[in-house]
Amino acid sequence: MASMPSPTLAATGISFAHSGADVLHDVTVRLRPGELTALAGPNGSGKSTLLEVLAGALPPRRGTVRRVGDAALVVQRPSAPATLPVTARDVAVMGAWRRSSAGPRGARGSAGRRPRAGRSSRAATRGAVDAALDRVGMLDQAARPLAELSGGQRQRVFLAQGIVRSPDILLLDEPAAGLDEHSTARMHAILAEEAARGAIVVCVTHDGAAIAAADRTIRLAGGRLLAAER
Ligand SMILES: Nc1ncnc2c1ncn2[C@@H]1O[C@H](COP(=O)(O)OP(=O)(O)OP(=O)(O)O)[C@@H](O)[C@H]1O
């Protein structure tokens, strides 16, 4: 059986403008599989914008992004879905089926086709969703409507959505926002575990402990890359 290519995420000469104003200038960075990278810098320095460009959610004005592998983006303070009549479990399930061209990882056919959602595939998805909710400590709240959860609980459910299909590339925007000490430690452990299984993990953060725990820190200032440390 052919071996899977290792995940790749590299940006070369990226520039990006919001509403005509340049916010990223000639950013070149290469992320490594098996590493947890902290993306740090002052407010407005372009961290979230760079994360979204890396995820393919925003097209760069100049430059290229090379991305090989299944990528999941956990956005900052996801508010819109909170008004939808969905449960915590529904949100996590969406992570398993985020791409229209492929089913959940591990449930794909040998040619990469999406299999029919048979009983075993549904059971696999349910198992993966339960495992992800359990890892973030939200399995016992799975049936609760998203709108009734606290901000921190909601944040954990969206982290579950991001990890449910064991993505090759996991991109997170301040995932510890609103989390208590215990949940923050748990989230850091999850990110380290995801990197340890070989994923590329990039986490936008202002938190000194998260930066210290990362394998590598990339800093932005005024939309420019300052340094790739360690
Ligand atoms: N949708 C938008 N429309 C216009 N300008 C935007 C938009 N989103 C971000 N910006 C601007 O782009 C710049 C970079 O914003 P970005 O959110 O990427 O910074 P950040 O480093 O993630 O900030 P923070 O630490 O506050 O989250 C800021 O000057 C911001 O005002």
UniProtKB/TrEMBL annotation:
Pfam family, one: ABC_tran
InterPro entries recorded: AAA+_ATPase (IPR003593), ABC_transporter-like_ATP-bd (IPR003439), ABC_transporter-like_CS (IPR017871), Metal_Ion_Import_ABC (IPR050153), P-loop_NTPase (IPR027417)
UniProt xrefs under PROSITE patterns: ABC_TRANSPORTER_1 (PS00211), ABC_TRANSPORTER_2 (PS50893)
SMART domains in the cross-refs: AAA
One MF annotation (Gene Ontology) recorded for this entry: ATP binding
SUPFAM superfamilies per the UniProt record, alphabetical: P-loop containing nucleoside triphosphate hydrolases
Composition bias, Low complexity: 97-110
Region Disordered, annotated ranges: 97-126
Keyword Transport: yes
Keyword terms: ATP-binding, Nucleotide-binding, Transport
Gene3D superfamilies, per the entry: P-loop containing nucleotide triphosphate hydrolases
Domain called ABC transporter: residue spans: 9-230
Keyword check for Metal-binding: no
PANTHER family: METAL TRANSPORT SYSTEM ATP-BINDING PROTEIN TM_0124-RELATED
Stated name of the protein: Zinc/manganese transport system ATP-binding protein
Organism, as annotated: Leucobacter luti
Source lineage: Bacteria, Bacillati, Actinomycetota, Actinomycetes, Micrococcales
